[in-house]
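Input/output pair, single chain:
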Amino acid sequence: MMQTFRERWRQMSQRERTIVLVGGIVVGLSLLFVLVVDPLLAKLDRLERQAVRKQKDITELALLSQEYAIKRDRLAKAESRMPAPDSQFSLLTFMEESATTAGVRDWITGMQPQMQAMAQGYQETAVDLRLEGVQLPELLALLVAIDQAPYDLQIRHLQIHPKFDNPIYLDATVRVLSYAKG
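Output:
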């Protein structure tokens, strides 16, 4: 086969040889581009897109890390204000003492404790306190006593209605929550 190719090459004129050489070079360069360069460019483009996507993921992960750190610190702060598991803190007892200190114990018509377990080992204790015929300064003194508690207490519900016959006196319902690690 090589022999026949050499014979035909010798029989060609200089012009035909130039055309065949140029055609061979064009075909060779085309094959080189199609088989080597184009796949490399496609891979480079894909890697650049992946790099941009990974950079975006890194940025998002950094933001999530910051958000996680903030929430972890908030949780640690909240847990530091919770009663220790070995402490004998009782929300009901604290509410009775606060009512006595604020001078509203005589106007309490109902005090109902409620406990419920929450997710991840926390326990929520609530006390519903109903006051009838209390005046605003005494009610405010009770709210201040709750706010200045040694542990983190939250007033979840506060409803105040003036008495119909004498608006100086109020009927109030207060729901106070306490959280503890269970």
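The helical segments are 2-11, 14-80, 91-102, 136-147. Residues 54 and 60 are 10 Å apart (CA to CA).
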